[in-house]
Amino acid sequence: MGMDADMxxxxxxxxxxxTQQFLLKDRSVWQQLCSSLDVIEDTDLAIDxxxxxxxxxGEGRERGQExxxxxxxxxxxxxxxxxxxxxxxxxxxxxxxxxxxxxxxxRSQEAREIRNASAGHPTKxxxxxxxxxxxxxSLTARGFTLHTYTDDGQVTAKYIDMQELVAGQAGEVExxxxxxxxxxxxxxxxxxxxxxxxxxxxxxxxxxxxxxxKVVEGTxxxxxxxxxxxxxxxxxxxKKFCGMLADRDIExxxxxxxxxxxxxxxxxxxxxxxxxxxxxxxxxxAYINARFxxxxxxxxxxxxxxxxxxxxAGA
Length: 315
Fold this sequence. Notes:
This protein is mainly alpha-helical. The protein has helices at about 5-15, 15-25, 25-55, 65-95, 105-120, 160-195, 210-220, 225-245, 255-275, 285-310, and strands at about 130-135, 145-150, 155-160.
């Protein structure tokens, strides 16, 4: 997969309702992740623009004095973009609790060191006792010569091939993103396997619908005792359903459709309780509420079946 496909896959995985709900429990973690994913993609756009511009400009053309400012801006910009992309990847891994030794990626670390020396802190690096500068006449779309001076009087010159830096980091970023995807997919699969046998849809088995029909029939002259018992059966089934979601480490709020359906059932079920307890309530209104409950439960059962189908996929 390329960068675009990798990032799309990561976004799909983190936006899976259960994973997203877990991440949203800590808003700072969620915001860090969103910022990191955006910056990974944004810096890739900047790096890609630099690469295209270099290819269009030609690699060896001499620069006039009037071009130096633009070339410095491009060099500083791409080095900073490489650095920002590394930080974004590190912070994405941190927010997702993906343990990768990012310091082990040598090409990216080389780019980071060159950025620090030439565009980050060139004038005085205390921890190294070194001072750096880009040789202006060497600066082209391809790269530049970096002079380094040390406190003990040593002077070195190193040619920095920015195209190689970009290509080196791109290869490692692709590998890192693949590892992130692999980790997230593995977690999702482990969870699915652990809970595939827990089926929330079983709360709405065939036997469930008989007492539901009794609730409706009771509003049209049927036995009120059967209608009242049907409400008890519905209450137990809903508790069972929510409990099975909890067993899967799923909260009701994880799926807005489920939360909405449950909320919509509260009033009509309460109203029907009053009706079957003997309050003098309108029978036609009771029928309307009972039919609403029946339809809402069918929608809830369909959503439960969709959840079960998702867990069974690939089993």
